[in-house]
User: Which sequence fits this backbone?
């Protein structure tokens, strides 16, 4: 794992893009309003959230047992189970399946998990084309771009940009930028590919331990195409996607669409259990992916992040995400959830700036359907990031600060000292720039100078 | 584990049916209410003169004379693509979310036939409409556990909101969904 680009650097670049900010603002405002409406409609929303958190915590506490139960059930219903410790192992399974069937292309439904392991690149290196069939993922693939939002990966592209791209690639001469015309262009382009596909690749939203069932939710029907029409299906499942029983789906199938697209229910939800003669793929491979998840599980505070069902509600309310967009987070998991998940998956030393990409306002925790304490985990990871980076100067400063705050007399002395020290910098009630390493603070904001007299002094003099 | 959320509905049947119709229509699907004896007329009203794939379990009485009934003899995807549409029943329907649930039952057919054709006409008997998602799942869970039946929840026509969050109906699945809600118990065909 290479170290991610520091968030502040990446964010500064993204913030220069006015088009991106306008697109993001429009999209996140729209989706927030839709979510608020359908969540307000559910009288038992808090009870659903509580149940979801409890179910996921139970899964995480006994993950080994549920995984074995799930794997046994998949095998019993005619599927093959592959255990993949990391991205390379998972990719190798998919490449092997494609090769054993002699195909040069596979159709794929949108899956963050396969983005995480960079499956498409691995397939390409093996001479197999991975065709993305989700509308937004297709846009990104055609343009060599990368998702910037969990639910709407091409949220940073507007209709004119999409029209121009399609006219250059799949639909020469396309003139209209009407969303219906754009959707029609992708339907026409993909239809032949779906009908001829022999191998499909999917992720999973949920995997049911008791029955070996895989569940995916979607809107367009491309997922149904990928999981129904080909002879062979490979489903890549992160091990945290398990739920114990089919009845548990009743909780998540209510929480996810309302949190994610702001709908009461998404257009299509598919459940499949092994293979069924005469109906759908006759060969099923299920790849159970770890890729850092057991490491997250080892952290009693941080493991709550594994409850995540990838709804993206936290992105849409985050004051940082809604301005920088997803690319600044340098990972397929952007926004607040990415800021706590990515550093844990790849190691805090490889993403030390991500836990700081937040104002700790707590909006994310309020909307999280599985009640992940995102601000709490951010603070927890910040402590780890500080411990992991050797900055003796900063540490010394904080030792001094702690000492100053430790007694009234020292505090008062520090204030007097500060009032003298700030003199060269305070102009008309504001400090606009500080020297040396302190300049980092004033680069993006003014600092209020210490008042000429403290409250205590004023009180004493009354 | 404590489940304090609603697991049983509180509406009576007319309210439940009305809610279902309202919620399905919300997805810009077409809703036609009829009584059990007039299902064929309702189908004719939306698919007159069309070639529809009709699973063997669908009662003959649902299929109007003016519709060409095509059997699913293991039709290839390209053959399904050449059809005008598909006519099926459903296992259960959920009022609160306007969802129909398919389980590859004899009157529903395999998954591909309700996916590839551009028009899906589905007959929902009123007594199959439940109020809540938990009630809907409860009725299909045994089919999954015991028979490994695939399950598809359908809530409106295929859609995408990927372009500036503007919802467009009809991407890869059927672009038209017609839900015929039949007042009395209709033959299950099983």
Assistant:
């Amino acid at each position: 794992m290479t170290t991610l680009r520091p968030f502040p650097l990446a964010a500064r670049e993204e913030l220069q893009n006015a088009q991106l900010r306008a697109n993001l603002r429009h999209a996140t405002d729209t989706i927030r309003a839709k979510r608020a409406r359908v969540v307000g409609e559910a009288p038992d929303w808090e009870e659903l959230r509580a149940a979801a958190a409890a179910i996921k915590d139970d899964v995480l506490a006994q993950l080994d047992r549920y995984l074995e139960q799930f794997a046994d059930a998949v095998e019993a219903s005619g599927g093959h189970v592959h255990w993949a410790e990391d991205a390379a192992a998972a990719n190798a399974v998919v490449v092997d399946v494609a090769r054993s069937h002699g195909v040069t292309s596979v159709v794929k439904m949108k899956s963050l998990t396969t983005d995480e392991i960079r499956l498409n690149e691995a397939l390409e290196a093996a001479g197999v084309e991975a065709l993305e069939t989700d509308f937004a993922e297709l846009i990104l693939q055609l343009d060599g771009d990368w998702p910037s939002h969990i639910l709407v990966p091409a949220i940073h592209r507007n209709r004119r940009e999409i029209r121009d791209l399609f006219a250059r690639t799949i639909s020469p001469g396309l003139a209209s930028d009407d969303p219906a015309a754009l959707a029609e262009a992708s339907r026409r382009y993909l239809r032949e590919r779906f009908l001829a596909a022999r191998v499909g690749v999917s992720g999973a939203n949920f995997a049911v331990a008791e029955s070996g069932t895989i569940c995916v939710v979607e809107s367009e029907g491309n997922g149904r195409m990928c999981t129904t029409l080909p002879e062979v299906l490979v489903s890549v499942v992160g091990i945290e996607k398990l739920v114990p029983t089919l009845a548990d789906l009743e909780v998540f199938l209510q929480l996810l669409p309302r949190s994610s697209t702001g709908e009461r229910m998404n257009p299509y939800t598919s459940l499949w259990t092994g293979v069924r003669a005469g109906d759908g793929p006759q060969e099923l491979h299920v790849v159970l992916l770890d890729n850092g998840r057991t490491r997250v599980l080892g952290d009693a505070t941080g493991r709550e992040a594994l409850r995540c069902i990838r709804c993206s509600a936290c992105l849409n309310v985050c004051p940082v995400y809604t301005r920088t967009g997803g690319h600044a987070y340098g990972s397929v998991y952007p926004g607040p959830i990415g800021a706590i998940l990515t550093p844990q998956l790849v190691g805090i030393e490889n993403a030390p700036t991500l836990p700081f990409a937040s104002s700790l306002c707590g909006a994310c925790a309020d909307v999280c359907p599985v009640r992940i304490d995102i601000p709490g985990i951010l603070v927890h990871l910040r402590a780890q990031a500080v411990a992991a980076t050797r900055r003796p100067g900063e540490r010394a400063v904080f030792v001094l600060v702690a000492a100053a705050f430790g007694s009234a007399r020292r505090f008062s002395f520090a204030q007097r000292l500060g009032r003298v020290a700030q003199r060269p910098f305070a102009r008309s009630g504001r400090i606009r720039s500080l020297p040396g390493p302190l300049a980092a603070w004033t680069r993006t904001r003014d600092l209020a100078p210490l008042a000429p007299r403290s409250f205590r002094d004023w009180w004493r003099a009354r | 584990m404590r489940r304090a959320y609603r697991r049983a509905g509180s509406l009576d049947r007319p309210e439940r049916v009305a809610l279902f119709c309202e919620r399905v229509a919300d997805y810009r699907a077409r809703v036609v209410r009829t009584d059990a004896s007039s299902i064929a007329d309702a189908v004719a009203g939306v698919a007159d003169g069309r070639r529809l794939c009709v699973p063997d379990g669908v009662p003959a009485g649902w299929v109007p004379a003016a519709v060409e009934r095509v059997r699913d003899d293991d039709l290839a995807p390209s053959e399904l693509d050449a059809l005008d549409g598909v006519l099926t029943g459903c296992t259960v329907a959920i009022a609160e979310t306007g969802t129909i649930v398919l389980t590859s039952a004899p009157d529903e057919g395999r998954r591909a036939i309700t996916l590839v054709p551009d028009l899906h006409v589905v007959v929902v008997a009123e007594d199959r409409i439940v109020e809540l998602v938990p009630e809907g799942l409860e009725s299909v869970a045994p089919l999954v556990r015991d028979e490994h039946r695939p399950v598809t929840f359908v809530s409106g026509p295929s859609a995408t909101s990927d372009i500036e969050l503007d919802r467009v109906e009809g991407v890869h699945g059927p672009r038209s969904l017609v839900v015929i809600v039949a007042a009395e118990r209709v033959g299950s065909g099983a």
Summary: DSSP finds four helices and twelve strands in chain B.
